[in-house]
User: Which sequence fits this backbone?
Protein backbone atom coordinates (compact mmCIF):
# COMPACT_ATOMS: atom_id res chain seq x y z
CA UNK A 1 0.00 0.00 0.00
CA UNK A 2 1.37 3.39 -1.03
CA UNK A 3 0.53 6.53 0.98
CA UNK A 4 0.59 10.15 -0.11
CA UNK A 5 2.15 12.98 1.95
CA UNK A 6 -1.08 13.32 3.95
CA UNK A 7 -1.18 9.64 4.89
CA UNK A 8 -3.99 8.77 2.48
CA UNK A 9 -3.79 5.49 0.58
CA UNK A 10 -3.10 6.05 -3.11
CA UNK A 11 -5.36 3.89 -5.27
CA UNK A 12 -3.90 2.36 -8.40
CA UNK A 13 -5.60 2.76 -11.78
CA UNK A 14 -7.19 -0.72 -11.67
CA UNK A 15 -8.81 0.00 -8.32
CA UNK A 16 -9.99 3.40 -9.55
CA UNK A 17 -11.62 1.70 -12.54
CA UNK A 18 -13.28 -0.88 -10.26
CA UNK A 19 -14.71 1.91 -8.09
CA UNK A 20 -15.95 3.77 -11.19
CA UNK A 21 -17.61 0.59 -12.42
CA UNK A 22 -19.38 0.04 -9.10
CA UNK A 23 -20.78 3.56 -8.77
CA UNK A 24 -23.68 5.25 -10.57
CA UNK A 25 -23.61 8.86 -9.34
CA UNK A 26 -20.75 11.28 -9.81
CA UNK A 27 -20.00 14.97 -10.22
CA UNK A 28 -18.81 16.56 -13.42
CA UNK A 29 -16.83 19.79 -13.23
CA UNK A 30 -16.92 21.95 -16.33
CA UNK A 31 -16.78 25.60 -17.35
CA UNK A 32 -20.06 27.44 -17.84
CA UNK A 33 -20.02 31.10 -18.88
CA UNK A 34 -16.33 31.33 -17.95
CA UNK A 35 -16.98 30.06 -14.40
CA UNK A 36 -16.50 26.61 -12.85
CA UNK A 37 -19.69 24.57 -12.56
CA UNK A 38 -20.28 21.29 -10.73
CA UNK A 39 -23.22 19.09 -11.54
CA UNK A 40 -24.22 15.73 -10.08
CA UNK A 41 -24.99 13.18 -12.80
CA UNK A 42 -25.70 9.52 -13.10
CA UNK A 43 -23.30 7.73 -15.39
CA UNK A 44 -21.93 4.41 -16.48
CA UNK A 45 -18.30 3.41 -16.89
CA UNK A 46 -18.18 1.51 -20.16
CA UNK A 47 -15.23 0.40 -22.29
CA UNK A 48 -12.83 2.61 -20.37
CA UNK A 49 -14.92 5.79 -20.67
CA UNK A 50 -17.43 7.64 -18.54
CA UNK A 51 -20.77 7.99 -20.33
CA UNK A 52 -23.42 10.53 -19.32
CA UNK A 53 -26.88 10.93 -20.83
CA UNK A 54 -28.32 14.44 -20.89
CA UNK A 55 -30.59 16.79 -22.83
CA UNK A 56 -29.08 18.34 -25.94
CA UNK A 57 -30.10 21.79 -24.67
CA UNK A 58 -28.69 21.35 -21.15
CA UNK A 59 -25.89 23.59 -19.96
CA UNK A 60 -23.79 20.44 -19.56
CA UNK A 61 -24.27 19.39 -23.20
CA UNK A 62 -23.52 22.92 -24.36
CA UNK A 63 -20.46 23.51 -22.17
CA UNK A 64 -18.90 20.04 -22.08
CA UNK A 65 -18.50 19.48 -25.79
CA UNK A 66 -14.89 18.84 -26.78
CA UNK A 67 -13.57 20.43 -23.60
CA UNK A 68 -11.46 19.24 -20.70
CA UNK A 69 -13.55 18.34 -17.65
CA UNK A 70 -13.04 16.75 -14.27
CA UNK A 71 -15.25 13.95 -12.98
CA UNK A 72 -15.39 12.74 -9.38
CA UNK A 73 -17.00 9.83 -7.56
CA UNK A 74 -16.76 9.02 -3.88
CA UNK A 75 -18.18 7.16 -0.94
CA UNK A 76 -17.80 8.16 2.70
CA UNK A 77 -18.82 6.89 6.12
CA UNK A 78 -18.79 10.03 8.27
CA UNK A 79 -19.23 8.10 11.52
CA UNK A 80 -16.19 5.91 10.85
CA UNK A 81 -14.27 8.75 9.16
CA UNK A 82 -13.52 6.47 6.25
CA UNK A 83 -14.01 6.68 2.53
CA UNK A 84 -12.57 6.96 -0.92
CA UNK A 85 -12.55 9.34 -3.86
CA UNK A 86 -11.66 8.90 -7.53
CA UNK A 87 -11.02 11.84 -9.86
CA UNK A 88 -10.80 11.60 -13.64
CA UNK A 89 -9.65 14.40 -15.91
CA UNK A 90 -10.28 14.08 -19.61
CA UNK A 91 -11.86 15.48 -22.72
CA UNK A 92 -15.66 15.37 -22.90
CA UNK A 93 -17.15 14.83 -26.32
CA UNK A 94 -20.71 14.63 -27.53
CA UNK A 95 -21.33 11.26 -29.18
CA UNK A 96 -22.54 11.84 -32.75
CA UNK A 97 -21.94 8.58 -34.62
CA UNK A 98 -25.34 6.86 -35.03
CA UNK A 99 -23.78 3.40 -34.46
CA UNK A 100 -22.18 4.57 -31.19
CA UNK A 101 -25.46 6.15 -30.08
CA UNK A 102 -27.33 2.92 -30.83
CA UNK A 103 -24.82 0.97 -28.73
CA UNK A 104 -25.00 3.47 -25.85
CA UNK A 105 -28.79 3.34 -25.86
CA UNK A 106 -28.57 -0.35 -24.92
CA UNK A 107 -26.58 0.40 -21.75
CA UNK A 108 -28.38 0.50 -18.38
CA UNK A 109 -28.06 4.29 -18.20
CA UNK A 110 -31.33 5.97 -17.29
CA UNK A 111 -31.16 9.57 -16.19
CA UNK A 112 -32.70 10.40 -12.84
CA UNK A 113 -33.53 13.89 -14.05
CA UNK A 114 -36.95 14.47 -15.59
CA UNK A 115 -37.42 15.18 -19.28
CA UNK A 116 -35.99 13.80 -22.46
CA UNK A 117 -32.32 12.81 -22.39
CA UNK A 118 -31.30 12.44 -26.02
CA UNK A 119 -27.59 13.27 -25.93
CA UNK A 120 -24.65 11.16 -24.79
CA UNK A 121 -21.41 12.67 -23.57
CA UNK A 122 -18.33 10.48 -23.31
CA UNK A 123 -15.34 11.39 -21.17
CA UNK A 124 -12.08 9.73 -22.19
CA UNK A 125 -9.89 9.59 -19.05
CA UNK A 126 -6.45 11.13 -19.51
CA UNK A 127 -5.56 11.34 -15.82
CA UNK A 128 -7.09 9.11 -13.15
CA UNK A 129 -6.28 9.32 -9.45
CA UNK A 130 -7.81 8.01 -6.27
CA UNK A 131 -7.37 8.15 -2.52
CA UNK A 132 -8.74 6.21 0.44
CA UNK A 133 -8.87 7.17 4.08
CA UNK A 134 -9.79 5.10 7.14
CA UNK A 135 -10.87 1.47 7.20
CA UNK A 136 -9.25 0.38 3.95
CA UNK A 137 -10.25 -3.27 4.03
CA UNK A 138 -13.93 -2.51 4.68
CA UNK A 139 -14.27 0.02 1.87
CA UNK A 140 -12.77 -2.02 -0.93
CA UNK A 141 -15.09 -2.82 -3.86
Assistant:
Amino acid sequence: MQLDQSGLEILDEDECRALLTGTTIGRIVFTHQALPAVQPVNFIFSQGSIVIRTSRTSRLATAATDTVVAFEVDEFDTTARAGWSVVVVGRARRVTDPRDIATLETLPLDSWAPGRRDTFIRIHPQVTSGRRIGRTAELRP
Observations:
- The beta strands are 9-11, 25-32, 35-46, 49-54, 67-77, 82-94, 119-133.
- The two ends are 16 Å apart (CA to CA).
